[in-house]
Amino acid sequence: MAAILITGANKGLGFETARRLVAAGHTVYLGSRDAERGRRAAAELDARAVQLDITDDVSVAAAVQTIEAGGGLDVLVNNAGIQAEMTGRNDVVGAADVTADLMRKTFDTNVFGTVRVLHAFLPLLRRSAAPVVVNVSSGLASLTRVSTPGTPAYAYPGVAYPASKTVVNMLTVQYAKAFPDIRINAVEPGFTKTDLNGNSGTQTVEEGAEVIVRMAQIGADGPTGTYVDAAGALPW
Questions:
Q1: How many CB atoms lie within 10 A of CB 191?
Q2: Contact at 8 Å (CB) between 105 and 55?
Q3: pLDDT averaged per 10 residues in sequence order, the chain, 236 residues
Q4: Which residue segments constitute the domains of the chain, with CATH numbers given?
Q5: Strand 227-229 versus strand 75-78 pairing type
Q6: Model pTM score
Q7: Which of 17, 78, 83, 105 has its Cα between 20 and 30 A from that of 55?
Q8: Cα–Cα distance between 141 and 112 in angstroms, integer?
Q9: What is the pLDDT of residues 95-137, one digit of tens each?
Q10: What is the DSSP string of 136-150?
């Protein structure tokens, strides 16, 4: 069984992913920015709580030490993310109103935070016999879909969140090429009801977590450098 870290896992997709992976027999580190919420969530699932703010170098370094002391890491699920352009259940800051500050806030978590965690945990992952990274992306990251009239992605007016997840896809490709011994993939959970989108999604967290759970458990001969949803490969 694998040792798995899930960032942003005290609620939503991260929590459901942790629940499923604990049930499958894995050792799961439940990463949470809020230490107390993380402890409560981990206790509910019989997971291991680790305080982890992916925007903070000190917090990430401390999490590395905790997990290294616990025996190492096989799987990293980069799930933590924000959608700062959502101003209401269905209200989104579009291109006319997006600011550099909004872009910076979004990228600080979704992009720079992901890089910070990847960089910090690479040494532990490379010691694993079958290391895996799952980057939780979005269907809005697909340039093909966003530029194709008639698709839900085309209709989405926001800039910051899709741009940040498109960068996550690029990170996935480049890291997969740089580290061929690690299975590194991007996944699209689907439009899931979570706090991220004001619970306006059209599917449950149980449905959304399926592809994350599946890709977290691939073996050393599994795919790498891919972008998939529950049904299969997605266009970049």
A1: 17
A2: no
A3: 97 96 98 97 98 98 98 98 85 95 98 98 98 98 97 95 98 98 96 63 83 97 97 97
A4: 3-233 (3.40.50.720)
A5: unpaired
A6: 0.95
A7: 17
A8: 16
A9: 999 999 999 999 999 999 999 999 999 999 999 999 999 999 9
A10: E--GGG-HHHHTSTT
Q: Which two tokens stand for residue 75?
A: 């799987």
What six digits make up the tokens of 158?
């926001």
